[in-house]
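dumping this here before i forget
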Amino acid sequence: MRMRKKKHGAERIAACADLLIPSPPEKDIREYFTEDRPLCLEIGCGKGGFACGLTSAERDINLVAVEKYSDAACLALEKAKASKDCRPDNLRFMIADASALGEYFPEHSVSCIYLNFSDPWPKSGYYKRRLTYASFLEIYRKLLVPGGILKQKTDNEGLFEFSLEQFAAAGLDTFMTTRDLHSSPYAENNIVTEYEAQFSAKGMPIYSAWVRF
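structure:
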């Protein structure tokens, strides 16, 4: 479901310009951070709950949170600005499509990629738009350092099964899978997204896989 257009969205985004990396970037993305830390990437950050939670909990990383839709990015930027726990020195946002990220990031510069509740594109013929389709995996392979990790969470079992098939076909090492994340040992350090909280409250299982490139 597409988010309702935000009133004065462009002005609100401009007010958070210090947290926003232009698309395309005007310099090496790593130079937008004040300290040199392992670089991580969230693709499809939505309203920014995961990005703020992760950078608050893990202070030794830099995170670029990418969102395709400016209305969602507006809320994420404002959340980061207003949060008392969020540390803006290790969090930046970018409004961009995932297909362009291979052009925006230096090769083999990213340590971990997060895909949280990506659009499952369930309609017939749309499978190539899924963020775990083979063409996207090749983009991630270019972005990630050797041994870099992709972490996926979804409420959609069909997307999860499709993703596992794509990971295997690409020869990737899927070293963690769970079909009920919140009942697994991995729940302890899990950063819950806005969608995740809604799905979990309804009793829906959360599927997760971690893949090494």
